[in-house]
Amino acid sequence: MSDRAITRPSRATRLFGVWYRHVRVYTRNLISNGFPPFFEPLIFFAAMGMGLAVYVGEIDGVPYLQYLAAGIIIPPAMFTASFECTFGTFIRLEFDKIYEGMLSAPMSVNDLLIGELLFAATKGLFFSTAVLIVITAFGYVESPLALLAPLAGLLTGLMFASLSLFVTSFVKTINHFNFYFTGLLTPMFFFSGIFFPLSNLPQSMQLVSEFLPLTHVVRIARGCVMGELRLYFLLDLLYAVGFTALFCVLAVYRLRKRLID
Question: What is the pTM of this model?
Answer without folding.
Answer: 0.92
